[in-house]
Design brief:
Layout (H helix, E strand, L loop, with lengths): L2 H25 L11 H30 L2 H24 L3 H26 L3
Helix pairs in contact: 2-3, 3-4
Length: 126
């Protein structure tokens, strides 16, 4: 298959995932036909699975970005982290889960520091 077609396919599936995330963030997973008896456990399992997948993506893509000293990939990772943690912090604040706002800020700082440092150093030619 043509690489442009494969990139389009990947982009469309990614956009659908983002849109599904927006719907669930605003309307909740209880819009789906899931028994209220298992909804919380199911949401927890989904949240855990997303963290496992996202963490694996960050680990692998992050190591590749640092090995290659690829500032463009580092900026992409940083942008994804900011979107994730800012949106999560806003919803946590809105729903009154204030401790998670602090967790989100701490996680963002822990990931952002090495990315921003490496991006700046590459920009300075080091």
């Amino acid at each position: 298959m043509d690489i442009k077609l494969l990139m389009l396919w990947f982009s469309v599936v990614s956009a659908i995932l983002v849109l599904a995330g927006v719907v669930f963030a605003f309307f909740g997973l209880d819009i789906l036909p899931v028994s209220k008896n298992v909804l919380l456990q199911w949401e927890s399992a989904i949240y855990g699975a997303i963290m496992i997948g996202w963490g694996t993506t960050l680990f692998l893509a992050g190591r590749l970005a640092f090995r290659r000293n690829d500032a463009e990939l580092m900026k992409i990772l940083l942008f994804g982290l900011i979107v994730w943690l800012v949106v999560e912090a806003i919803f946590s604040f809105y729903l009154g889960v204030f401790f998670n706002v602090g967790v989100d800020l701490a996680v963002l700082a822990l990931f952002s520091f090495p990315l921003m440092k490496a991006i700046r150093e590459q920009g300075q030619g080091k």
